[in-house]
Amino acid sequence: MHILQITDPHLHGRADRQVRGVSTDTSLRSVLGTALAQFPDYEALLVTGDLVQDDSGGYARLRGICSSLRKPVLCIPGNHDDPATMARELCAQPFQVCGARGFGAWRVVMLDSCDPGKVGGRIDAAELARLDEELERCDGHALVCLHHHPVAMNSRWLDGIGLANAAEFWRIIDSHANVRGVSWGHVHQAFDGRRGGVRLFATPSTGAQFAPGSEHFAVDGRPPAFRHYELLPDGHILSRVHWVAGPGAPRPAAPRPAPPRPPPPPPAGARGPRRPPPPARRRAEGPSRASTAAGGRHPCLHLREPRLLHRREQGIQPRTRRRASLDRTAQQRTVFPAD
Ligand SMILES: [Fe+2]
């Protein structure tokens, strides 16, 4: 049984709005298109909160993007959502807000962890009681989903806005042997852990990500993503995050290529092989006086070298002739006169 998870799309009513430099509408469409193309046989799409960025117009946008899907779209609210408005806006097929849904041997239980007016989360007494009842009723395997993280993410600022009553949540989870996994959004980063026999999953946003392990708020340069779950009949879970680079994705600055390393200087006194300077330098600087005086480095003189050797063989003083040729070259920039 295959489930796709997207989270924290932070949609606005307008398509051209951005959150932390990412066009949330474009980015969500890109991630969803990739996910559905890669896993066409999925059973449900899970959306774990922050569907909108404090803009109820974003729910209509989500309807526009997902209403043609033939599979259930299972939604839970996040701290940027208004749970009542969300339930009202997403009341028709294929959407389901909170509650629970069975898929063969599995049951997906969706919790509302929103604490009104706060960024951090809390599951109220009624919702905790419902969780207990859902797990009691489940005779197969359970995957529990909420928006806020119920374990530390080793990030000081994020761990201050997690699930405030995580101990109460875990007390209920621990009292049922059928919970195989707990999944959340909110942290905008990937996490794959374990608490006893329960797998723990955090999923990156379909927009901008937060830097893992950071002391203070920091945006990460990683691209949008979705998560795929394969829920096996024996209760095992196979899961992986899929990063989607594409339209709307933040683009980290490309690393600059390292400048070419100059050749090591020859040892003092040694005559290593002569290397012509790179073409750009030759055009910019022209032949230097030193290289010309040394003989053989100027292209014209180099071509004339065999002729100089021929003169030397005939007993003509090469030094005089060569000096004369060098002087002419320097003054007139002409080739050696014909013999
Ligand atoms: Fe979020």
Low-confidence stretches: 252-257, 268-339
Can you list the strand order of the major beta sheet? 6-5-4-1-15-16
Strand content: 15-25%
Structural class: alpha/beta
Structure description:
- With about 350 residues, the chain is an alpha/beta fold.
- It is built from 10 helices and 16 strands.
- The strands form 4 sheets. Strands 6-5-4-1-15-16 form a 6-stranded mixed beta sheet, covered by helices on one side. A 6-stranded mixed beta sheet has the order 7-8-9-10-12-11, covered by helices on one side. The chain has a two-stranded antiparallel ribbon with strand order 2-3.
- Helix 4 runs parallel beside helix 6 and helix 9 runs antiparallel to helix 10.
- The N and C termini lie far apart (about 90 Å).
- The structure holds fe (ii) ion.
Question: Can you give me a brief rundown of this structure?
Answer:
By secondary structure, this protein is α/β, with parallel strands linked by helices. The chain is built from ten helices and 16 strands.
SSE layout:
Layout: E1 2-6, E2 18-19, E3 22-23, H1 24-38, E4 44-48, H2 57-66, E5 73-76, H3 83-89, E6 95-97, E7 99-103, E8 106-110, H4 125-137, E9 141-145, H5 156-159, H6 166-174, E10 179-184, E11 191-195, E12 198-202, E13 209-210, E14 219-220, E15 225-231, E16 237-243, H7 279-285, H8 289-294, H9 299-313, H10 318-332
Parallel strand pairs: 1-4, 4-5, 5-6, 8-9, 9-10, 10-12
Antiparallel strand pairs: 1-15, 2-3, 7-8, 11-12, 13-14, 15-16
Helix pairs in contact: 4-6, 9-10
The site of fe (ii) ion has 6 residues, from loops.
